[in-house]
Write a structure and sequence with these properties.
single chain, mainly alpha, Apoptosis Regulator Bcl-x, globular, Bcl-2-like_sf, BH domain binding, porin activity, Bcl2-like, Bak-like 2
Length: about 250
């Protein structure tokens, strides 16, 4: 069944899951390639293809070739072409969000408390990723922000990469897809016409503020970060006040 014929049946959900796996994998490795290409051109480059293990390089090349074939398959295989178009939309819309809200994403990554072995549990990922979905609301902007979060984690891990990098990148892709399935986001996608509607939403020329949808979603994580600092400031002020009162009472004649 073609992706655009989604009607919410169990078969559709299976197809939507497979589509999610393809989109997430392709976008993460595609953006990883772009970041490394950009970094390699800088004087003090942080990343270079020569620093990556061969399994990661193979995956980057495989994704690049797969997307090339998808792009040229419009007349013969619409479903494959759709993957190319979805990744292209993510590159356009998500790329801007990653650039503008890089520090907000890093704040979320810090909350994952990634160990020296660059490991963290799925439960930790869920707790942090949910902050991208205000009041449990689901929208295309939140979904794109979630996938962009996966890109930022991947870049962070590659920058600090150690043994097991290839399997860890696959783990990130798996976490994102599992989150989409288990947090009922996949059901929402099915009810809203499938992944093809994400393309329609961001590709609509009448949608003048397409990027703002993404930026609004990322502002949620920044707000969360501000709230954390305000809470810390309040606690610190309260403790300081108690200490001052106690000191004055202690030193009263």
């Amino acid at each position: 069944m073609a992706e655009h014929e989604c009607n919410g049946s169990s078969d559709d959900l299976v197809q939507l899951t497979k589509t999610a796996e393809n989109i997430v994998r392709c976008f993460i490795y595609r953006m990883l390639e772009k970041v490394i290409n950009k970094s390699s051109c800088e004087e003090n480059f942080r990343l270079h293809f020569s620093l990556l293990p061969e399994p990661v390089l193979c995956e980057i090349r495989a994704v690049k070739e797969y997307l090339r074939k998808c792009e040229s398959s419009y007349s013969t295989e619409k479903d494959s072409w759709f993957i190319h178009k979805a990744v292209q939309i993510l590159e356009e819309q998500g790329g801007i969000a990653i650039q503008k809200y890089h520090h907000a994403f890093l704040s979320l990554i810090n909350q994952l408390q990634i160990t020296d072995e660059y490991n963290f549990a799925y439960t930790q990922f869920v707790e942090v990723a949910k902050k991208l979905f205000e009041n449990d609301n689901i929208a295309w902007s939140h979904i794109v922000s979630l996938i962009c979060f996966g890109v930022e984690i991947s870049v962070y891990i590659v920058e600090h990469g150690k043994v097991g990098l290839a399997s860890f990148l696959k783990k990130i892709c798996s976490f994102i897809v599992d989150f989409i399935v288990k947090e009922e986001i996949l059901q929402w996608i099915a009810q809203h016409g499938g992944w093809i509607k994400m393309i329609d939403f961001f590709d609509d020329p009448n949608c003048q503020f397409r990027t703002n949808h993404i930026l609004a979603a990322m502002a949620i994580s920044e707000l969360t970060n501000i709230e954390v600092w305000l809470q810390r400031f309040f606690v610190a002020s309260l403790v300081s006040g108690i200490i001052v009162i106690a000191w004055r009472k202690w030193h009263q004649p």
